[in-house]
Amino acid sequence: MRTRARALGLISALALTGGAFAAVPAEASQSAETPTRTPECQGDWLPATPTSEDVMSGQLSFLDRPAVKIGAKINWKLDPYKSRSWQMVFQSLRWMGRLVADYETTGKQAYLTRATEIAKDWVEKNPYGGRSTNKFAWSDHPTSLRAPALVCLSRYVPDAWLKNSLAVHAKLLADPRLYKAGHNHGLDQDIGLLRIGCRYNQKGWKDLALSRMVKSMKLDIDSEGSLREQAPRYAIYVHDRLRVATDTIKDCGLKVPDDLAKRWDGLPKHISAATQPNGYMVPLGDGAPDVQPAGFAHSSETVQVFKAGYVFGRTAWGDPQSAYYSIRFGPGLKFHGHEDHLGVTYYAQGRDVLTEAGFHSYENTPYRRWTMTPEAHNIPVVVGKPFHGRTPTSLVRRSIGKDRQSFTLTDKAYGVSRTRAVLVNHDQDVMAVLDTTDGGKVRNLWHFDPSLKVYSNGGGRVVVGEGSWRATLVQLALPSCKPIGGQKVVRGQTNPYQGWISPAYMKKVAAPAVISPAASPLLTIVVPGTAKPEVSCSGRSVIVHTSDGPTSFKISGSDLV
């Protein structure tokens, strides 16, 4: 590490003689008394909090956590919440960049002075490879986010310490061994490198950043506009960062590549499809249910199947009472995904019914690890078989009609075939799920929204509700089509974890989870709007009486039609 640090120190020294950087443009040394708004310091890259006044008073609030007092002399190893995420934001120095941006708009010299003090102190206390350097200081994400903040400061501070540090940043951002291709971190690395390359007119860095960006985003966003990071929430982040990237490309006098523009244009369809009728995103992967997208165009289709591994369906657009569901399949777990294959969610009659444990944080805690397991999702488990993570799941059948859709999915996540058929009926709201396996028996798990209370459990039926509204989960053993009892309702259990939902970052609340008895095949029917749905069978047909009248479907092998 120290050998690399010395090498990078030589690269930094070259910056002073023009070896790594071209001559600094004259505007870098312009008078601090006459600031002008610059592309480097203005734009969407800046965080909204903390404000400049917060920073000046030494109060830093990140990630909705209470503010931390840092004082005039900053401890760069500060970790008040024992949180990697907090440290990442702290080390990124974007909060320092807020001062420079506001200096440009207000002319307050004190903002620039304090920003310079903060940045210089960070550079002096955190040399790359230094023994006392914070361990997160030079991780890929804080490094990439810090680079634009330092570039912004360089418009007003032409000093050697800052140029040298930017040279080190550029070297690391350009290092292929540290690059996160096909990931939002890689996009941020490209933005940081491009900003430095443009600031100092380094063609090699500019060309590398732009070419990598195109290749990386083609890996991260497929031709259908789906983000491959397995958490739809991150599609919003990548869309926002691609806007910053295109602004940076234009500021640099370069042309935005067509492939990059196409990938950016495709994301809104994916984002809107993953947004429930209440305006909040369905909490898949590292995504909490408090994410509320705004202003994204949507497809005219009410049911959309993305090859990246998502089915999103709704009754209608623009109607908060619309039914909505999601189904997961596709490639094995990666990046921000969870082990949620074959999992479903269900929104009906203006409320969440079936949801997921969701996203709590990135901290390596037992609870965080549980939220990523199959048991934190609405999935079938093959009894007595070990789970094999990162197993892909295939969508083998689909039937999409206006008032009814059905899908069949299969994989070998437990070493044997497990198959799930999902049918959603509209008008008379019903979700039916058939779970089968060739390896014995399955049991499944159903996570209800925390707002719902369990009112009864018996005879193969669990009734949940809020106020006067009710929904019923019915489970039948096949081929007898008789109710199968023994459902266990768990709420707020910690050993092992079960019966929890994370409504927002670093929060969790107890919520009812139903663990079924073991059977195969196992038919589960969810009927919103009633506590007493009549369910009967005739041959392979199942008749369900909902609050809006009867509906029926058929069982055909391992499919529902």
UniProtKB/TrEMBL annotation:
<feature type="signal peptide">
    <location>
        <begin position="1"/>
        <end position="22"/>
    </location>
</feature>
<keyword id="KW-0732">Signal</keyword>
<dbReference type="InterPro" id="IPR008929">
    <property type="entry name" value="Chondroitin_lyas"/>
</dbReference>
<dbReference type="Pfam" id="PF07940">
    <property type="entry name" value="Hepar_II_III_C"/>
</dbReference>
<keyword id="KW-0574">Periplasm</keyword>
<dbReference type="Pfam" id="PF16889">
    <property type="entry name" value="Hepar_II_III_N"/>
</dbReference>
<dbReference type="InterPro" id="IPR031680">
    <property type="entry name" value="Hepar_II_III_N"/>
</dbReference>
<dbReference type="InterPro" id="IPR012480">
    <property type="entry name" value="Hepar_II_III_C"/>
</dbReference>
<feature type="domain" description="Heparin-sulfate lyase N-terminal">
    <location>
        <begin position="67"/>
        <end position="263"/>
    </location>
</feature>
<feature type="domain" description="Heparinase II/III-like C-terminal">
    <location>
        <begin position="332"/>
        <end position="468"/>
    </location>
</feature>
<protein>
    <submittedName>
        <fullName>Heparinase II/III family protein</fullName>
    </submittedName>
</protein>
<keyword id="KW-0456">Lyase</keyword>
